[in-house]
Design goal:
Blueprint (H helix, E strand, L loop, with lengths): L4 E5 L6 H14 L7 E5 L5 H8 L4 E3 L18 H6 L4 E4 L2 H6 L4 H13 L3 E6 L3 H5 L3 H12 L11 E5 L13 H18 L2 H6 L2 E3 L8 H5 L6 E4 L6 H8 L3
Parallel strand pairs: 1-2, 1-8, 2-3, 4-5, 5-6, 6-7
Helix pairs in contact: 1-2, 5-7
Length: about 250
């Protein structure tokens, strides 16, 4: 049975002091056991601090990215083994900002997915269309291509370690949000596509998150849709009150 998940992607925000402050607020304000898995992804420099701070809470600490190589001359990069060594068991891969600003292709992301799974890391795999793709009605084709070229090489058994995050890129940081109906339409398409490529059991058990300007005032309506299993939250995850209100939208 698939799980509800709310993951906060902090991106390049919060130094150590700010991270400690936000983590403290999250611990203090999480007054009840959440009905979803809750995750936060601080910057690499603060991952271990966050892990130590939250290890006695229901909040998991995850990484925003990783390199596909085991080790080597890759200045500034972090490997799966490094993440595992500090207690991190989940990594976000394929975020639209990584694709756009750091030129991560579907082929590179396939390598990253394989490396993460080989190291028994859970993967939150991101994908989604730009505004021009939606306007030209190419959004379904693009999403299918991203999934096939980066993810469909994995074995059926490895799907238990995959979480999908659909990001309509035009709705990230813009204040625009896909309507709940648009989100459901795409999530249903994704699930049907996985069923065709693998089987219905995998399709029905994989969690598919929505990522695109989720806020406390729209989370419940989006999460209520049949094929939406939670959210990958950006800006709203930087405020403890807003993030936990989203968590409690289930």
């Amino acid at each position: 049975m698939r799980k509800n998940i709310v993951a906060g992607n902090w991106k390049m925000n919060n130094d150590l002091a700010e991270t400690k402050e936000l983590l403290g607020h999250l611990k203090m304000q999480l007054v009840k056991e959440p009905e979803a898995e809750v995750m936060v992804a601080p910057a690499f420099t603060n991952l271990y601090e966050a892990f130590q701070t939250l290890k006695s809470t229901p909040i998991q600490v995850i990484a925003q990215n990783m390199h596909q190589a085991k080790s080597g001359a890759f200045t500034g990069e972090v490997s799966a083994k490094m993440l595992k060594s500090i207690g991190i068991n989940t990594v976000i891969l394929g975020h639209s900002e990584r694709r756009a600003h750091f030129h991560e292709t579907n082929e590179i992301l396939a390598e990253k997915v394989n490396a993460a799974l080989e190291n028994e890391l859970r993967v939150i795999f991101c994908f989604g269309e730009e505004l021009e793709d939606r306007k030209s009605e190419n959004h379904f084709n693009l999403v299918e291509k991203q999934l096939k070229e980066s993810l469909y090489q994995i074995s059926e058994d490895n799907w238990k370690n995959i979480v999908l995050a659909y990001e309509p890129v035009w709705a990230i940081g813009t204040g625009e949000t896909a309507s709940p109906e648009q989100a459901q339409e795409m999530h249903a398409f994704i699930r049907n596509n996985i069923a065709d490529a693998f089987n219905d059991d995998i399709a029905q058990n994989v969690s598919i998150l929505y990522g695109g300007s989720v806020k406390p005032d729209n989370a419940a309506e989006i999460f209520a849709k049949e094929d939406v299993d939670g959210g990958l939250i950006g800006g709203a995850s930087l405020k403890a009150v807003d993030f936990l209100e989203i968590v409690n939208s289930f």
